[in-house]
Design goal:
Blueprint lengths: L2 E3 H6 L2 E7 L12 E3 L3 E10 L2 E15 L6 E16 L6 E3 L1 H11 L48
Antiparallel strand pairs: 1-7, 2-4, 3-5, 4-5, 5-6
Length: 156
């Protein structure tokens, strides 16, 4: 839980640094990766009119298969320089900002994990890893192949 005391915030700005377990990031199970490290965060909290301004960053390591070549890859994901306004309810002593920080990290997660940005993937014919070797398969022809080839003869 990432939280701060409002009575302390009344007196001074707060610096929060720490880590949360990997389970802090809630995944649906459909993601092609898992969270493999603690979630590290460094946040500065200032009192502003009607609430608190939270600024800072967080990072976590994820591991999974590359979405193109299927090799095992591990990447550090950073949610940096975010700023959040947290409205504070009256008569509250402790303000929990776990959900807000979790949302910022989740927004930084990739939809498709890649081993590198220029990954060439696998050959669709023989399955060779095109990052490591050049296959001898002929490139698929642009015309007359696939399920849409019947539309080539359509006269409009």
């Amino acid at each position: 839980m990432i939280a701060f005391s409002l009575s302390r915030l009344e007196k001074e700005d707060i610096r929060l640094e720490g880590c949360e377990p990997p389970e802090f990031i809630v995944l649906t199970g459909a993601e092609p990766f898992t969270v493999t490290s603690d979630v590290f965060y460094a946040l500065d909290i200032s009192k502003v009119s009607g609430g608190a301004l939270v600024s800072g960053g967080a990072h976590v390591t994820i591991t999974g298969e590359c979405g193109r070549c299927l090799t095992e890859v591990s990447r550090e994901i950073r949610a940096e320089d975010f700023q959040l306004f947290v409205e504070i309810a009256p008569h509250t002593e402790i303000c929990d900002i776990s959900e807000e920080v979790r949302t910022e990290i989740t927004l930084a997660l990739p939809m498709n994990l890649l081993c590198r940005d220029d990954c060439r993937g696998l050959c669709p014919v023989c399955g060779a890893d095109l990052n490591c070797e050049k296959c001898s398969c002929a490139p698929p022809s642009a015309q007359g192949s696939g399920v849409w080839s019947a539309l080539d003869d359509l006269k409009l």
